[in-house]
Amino acid sequence: MTALCGRTQSDSIRQVLNKMPDDTAKVKLLNNLCWDFRNKAPENSVVYGKEAIQLAKKTGFTDEMLKAMSFTGVAYRNLGNYPEAFKYFFEHLEESKKFNNLEQQGYAYINIGNAYIYQEKPIEAIKMLDEALKITKKLKNDKQSAYVMLNLGRAYLLNDDFIQANYYFMEAYDFRKNIEDKDGQGICLKYIGDTYFEKGELDKALDMYIRSMELVELEKDQDLYSDILDKVANVYLQKGNNSEALKNALKSYSIGLLAGTKLRTKNACLTISKTYEKLHDFNNAYKYQTLFIIYKDSLFNEDVGNRIADIEYERERQIKQKEYELERQKKQSEINLLIEQEETHRAINIGLVSGLSLILLLALVLFRSNRVRKKTNRLLTKQNELIEKKNTDLEVAYTEIQLRNEEITTQKEEITAQRDFVMKQGDKISRQKDLLKEQRDFVLKQKKEITDSIHYAKRIQNAILPPIESMKDYLNDYFIFFHPRDIVSGDFYWTTEIQNKLVIAAADCTGHGVPGAFMSMLGIASMNEIVNKMDNISAAGILNNLRDNIIKSLHQTGKEGESKDGMDIALCVVDKINNELHFAGANNPLYLIRNGELIEFKGDKMPIGIQLSLEYEPFKNNMIKLETNDVFYMFSDGFADQFGGPKGGKFKYKPLKELLLSTHLLPMNEQKEVLHNKLEEWMNFNDPQTNKPFPQIDDIVVVGCKF
Question: Residues of 30-62 as b/e, b for ≥16 C-beta within 10 angstroms?
Answer without folding.
Answer: bbebbbebbbbbbebbbbbbbbbbebbeeeebb
